[in-house]
User: What shape does this take?
Amino acid sequence: MIVHLVDGTYELFRHFYGLRRFTRVKGSAPRGVDRPYGAVVGVLQGVLAMIEQGDTYIGVATDHVIESFRNRLWADYKTGAGIERALLAQFHPLEEALAAMGVVVWPMIELEADDALASAAHLASKDKRVEKVAIWTPDKDLAQCVRGTRVVQIDGRRKIIRDAAAIREKFGVGPPLIPDLLALVGDAGDGYPGIPGIGGRTAATLLNRYGPIEKFPSNILGKQRKLALLFKKLATLRTDAPLFKKVETLRWRGATPAFAAWADRMKAPQLIERCEKAAGR
Assistant: This one.
């Protein structure tokens, strides 16, 4: 079996802004007017397309809230500030609609969606029956979860699949050293700056020479060592979330009776028809 793990928060953002660009180009809606469930429907359609192709072992991770334990470690870590209200209003409906459609969803509060994806990949890869684990997100944080050719990262928008060799080619280090790399160069999206004067090439050279930050000679980072280790803690994804005990629980078996009401609310009756057809195969 192949297990597919989807970054629901990323997909929601992608569909929200993609739909807005489309409506602006077509002129069917004024700028700033968004369909209340437009992005939710987009995510559901994407997940359902995977199911229709026979990929029925699926889990979707979401950020139920943006803040996590990392905000207590670093004051400038990303928050929900600045997220448009029309987008934020679709966070919880996405979780509820996915569950009604019969898809396993993990809404994260203390941890982040990325931690859920990392934990799910860890749990799924322990099952010998799992041939491959596909993590659907372009987020560079998740590169640390890639293992050989069995646990891969997929950028669905760019149609790119990265195994461990591809991760090394892209970043200059293997997957296990991705948290160290991010700690040194920083991650603007997550809100930590990295170590001044260290760019991607220098960071990769140091890591390939010495190994993880903990093994760096004391003169390499000097007084910045403690800060680098803090950033590494921010960049290291948790793999201990108890999301499921058996991979079989991820198998899609059809929409629940509650999904009809959701399809009606979202004005997307075609989703019901597609679910019924997919379940009847």
